[in-house]
Every structure is written in C-alpha cells, then in structure tokens.
Amino acid sequence: MIVGIIISLVWFLAWASPVEAVCPVCTVAVGAGVGISRWLGIDDTVSGVWMGGLVVSSAFWLASWLEKKGKAWPHKRFWAVLLMYVMTLPPLYWSGMVGHQGNQLWGVDKLVLGMGVGSGLFALAVWTDKLLRLTKDGKVYVPYQKVIIPVTLLLAGSLYFYMLTK
C-alpha cells in the first residue's frame, strides 16, 4: 500500500502544472503530517488539524484543475471543499474513527473538530499568501512562502490542541 501511495504521489507531482491554487510541496507536507501524527498516536484533534488542511488543499487543487478544463462555476472552491468533506467524513464514520461519545472536546468529535480548525487555518494561509503578494506586486517575501505559511499555521493549531489535550 505504501509503495502504491508513493508511486501515486510521484506520478501526480510529475504531471502537476507549475501554477496551481496550492503548491504540490505543501500538499505533500500536509499529507505527511497526517500520517506522522496518526502513527505517533497523537490526539485526534491534532491529527484532525492536518486532515482538515489536506481536505482544503485537495479541494483547492480540484477547483483549479476543473477551471483549467473549462469547468468553471460560481463558488467553485466552496463546492470543492464540500465535495471533499463528503468524500472524507462518511468513510471515517463507517470505519469507526468518528462518532465515539468519549472522544469529544467541547461536545464535538475530536477528529471533526480538528478537521474544521485545520480547514480554516489552511484557507487562512492561502488568503494570507495572496494578501502578502498583493502588497509586494505579486512577489513573495521569502522563498517557499506558499509552503511556509500553511505549514506554520497548521503547526500552530497542532501545538494548541496538543497542549490543550495533553
């Protein structure tokens, strides 16, 4: 299975176009964060932060890809995020990873809560990158800014939940 995932990632990155809504490196970093946090047995809120970032990253890629194919529609990012959540949450529920009464924080399932926060942080990161580029005539302030901002915000969200649930 791991070999299949690696081959899929290499294939995907090899065919990715250079101008996307979210860069491939950032998506891979988010995906690695999900895998590592689950492997280490870290609390579901922390894992959820990275899963939420991955959901939004994938949705933005889907919206960008569909637009390139001439399939533009109003609020494309919203619908792409909704589609990705519809494709993510039911399997998590059916597999028993979501919905346990004892696995809640603030009355919300920990994984779902983390995903919501991670999705918001990732969307905020994309918006922040665009805002920073507007203030500098489309140029970045630091190399890999498009990667650094989302990963930093997701790390901050992870640290918050880690300290909260420790």
Q: Looking at the chains present, what oligomeric state does this protein adopt? A: single chain
Regions with pLDDT < 50 over 5+ consecutive residues? 9-13, 15-22
Shape descriptor? globular
Average pLDDT across residues?
77
**Secondary structure tally: strands:** 2
Tell me the count of domains.
1
Helix residue percentage:
over 70%
Structure write-up:
This protein has 166 residues and is mostly helical. The chain has one domain. It contains 6 helices and 2 strands, in the order ααααββαα. A two-stranded antiparallel ribbon has the order 1-2. Strand 1 and strand 2 form a beta hairpin. Helix 2 runs parallel beside helix 6, helix 3 packs across helix 4 and helix 5 packs antiparallel against helix 6. The longest helix has 25 residues. The relative contact order is 0.16. About 8% of the residues have low confidence.
Question: What is this entry, summarized?
Answer:
The chain is mostly helical and 166 residues long. The protein contains 6 helices and 2 strands, in the order ααααββαα. The chain has one domain (26-165).
Detail the topology: elements first, then pairings.
Layout: H1 2-15, H2 24-39, H3 44-68, H4 76-94, E1 104-105, E2 108-109, H5 110-134, H6 145-165
Antiparallel strand pairs: 1-2
Helix pairs in contact: 2-3, 2-6, 3-4, 3-5, 3-6, 5-6
